[in-house]
Every structure is written in structure tokens, then in C-alpha cells.
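JOB MANIFEST
job_type = single_chain_structure
chain_count = 1
residues = 287
[input]
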Amino acid sequence: MLEPRWSLIWLSSVRVRYLSGSIGFSYRDCRKSGTILRSVVACNYTRSADKEENLSRLRQHVENHLIDRIGWLRAAVLGANDGIISTASLIVGVAAAATTQNEVLIAGVAGLVAGAMSMAAGEYVSVSSQSDTEQADLARERKELSENSEFELDELAEIYVKRGVDQALARQVARQLTAKDALAAHARDELGISEITTARPVQAALTSAVMFSVGAAMPLFTVVVSPAGTLVPIVSSASLGFLALLGAIGARAGGANVLRATARVTFWGAAALAVTAGIGKLFGAVV
């Protein structure tokens, strides 16, 4: 039996010769062609079944990459970390100045509200600036695509060549991606803008504000349940414990080294608490 690709060539050749009148079909030829056709059909059916099986496997294989969390995780960790450190440092500094427990609590609540609003405003402004820059670059790229599409195609192909793709294949890939969505292809491969890294100002602002409030509430709760004379050591140790827990949770969510992340956030939290307590004790006034 002939191989499928040679079968197709043989059939095409026989058909051309038959139509030109150079040969006629015999019973043997008909039987032979029938066998070949059955082989071709069987081969195509097998390939189609293999393709369906591969697609089915791909649909069942779902990947959850940690990089997908980077937008909200960064804002969440920053907000909670800042809430614990800034509020605890404020409380420790005020308590070290020998003020009453009520004054310490009022200062802590004021720090929570001001800090949450500051985090929300700061995140919104900074991430909006990133978004504005992205939109400006996309507008520029859109203009270049409309004015000089051939040069942009060459530029895209060259990017793939630098990544190790063969010149001819890179050109073919660039053409196909350009035909589907030229701006998306250039945004992703030339500018480095993707759906994962796209700036989301509102998400960043809300996440930071909420997580700052959650973080700040922890040392405030410690003030409420602690005796007046032991506020500084209890708030300091509890806040360091909260920071260590936050570091571990953030590292776990981001797939990072838990011990390293916990040690890093605890060290800098302890440094902030020590400096603020020292200033409060030195000047004897609310810091």
C-alpha cells in the first residue's frame, strides 16, 4: 500500500492523464485507487482524532500562575505592612512620651484614617500616571502602524529573531499576529504591556486603603486590651508578630521564600518602632 502523500500524488497524476486522454481506467486501476482513497481517509480521520484529543487535554489542563496576582498582591502587602508599621510606630512614639491611654488611642485612630486616605490617594495617583504613560505609548504605536505598517512589521519580526526564532519563521509569525491584532502584538512584544501588567488605578487604591485599615486595626486593638503602663512593650511585640505573620502570608501567596520575607519585614518594622519610640522618649512630646 502506498504512503498517503504518495497516494495523493499518484491519484492526481492518474486523473490528469485520464482527462488528457493519454490513459484509460481499468478495473485494476479502480480497485487500486479505491484502496488508496481508503488509506487517505483513514489517515485524515486519525489526524483529526489526535487533534481533538490534544485540544481536549489543553482544555483540561488549567494553569494558575502566581504572576496573575502581582497587581493586587503588591498593593495589599504594601497597604497592610504600612498600616501596621506606621500606626504601631505612632502609638509607641506617643506612649513613650508618657501620655494617657486615651490620647494614645485617639492618635492611633487619627493615624488609621489619615493613613488609609493617604494610601488610597497615593496609589491612585501613581498608578494613574503609569496608566497614562501606557496609553500614550499605545497611541503612538497606533499612529506608527497606520503610517508605516511595513516598517512596524519588520520591527516585530526582528524582536522574534532576537529571541531565537529563525528569520523566515519570525517574519511569518509577525505577519499572522499583525493580521489578527497588530496593536496588541506590538503592545505585548515591543512595549511589554500585557493584560497582567496593565495599570489598574482604582483596584490599587481600594486594595491599599482597605489593607492599610486592616493592618492599622491590629496595633489599635492591642492598645485597647493592654494595661496603660505596659503599652510600649506589648504594642511593639504584638506589632512585630503581626508583621511576621503578614510577611509569611504575602510570601506564601506570591510563592516566595517564607523565612526570608518574614525576616525582612520584621527587621524593618522593628527598626521603625525603635526609632519612633526613641524620638518620643527623647522629646517627651507627641510625635
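[summary]
Residues 67-283 form one domain.
The chain has two domains: 4-60, 67-283.
exit_status = 0
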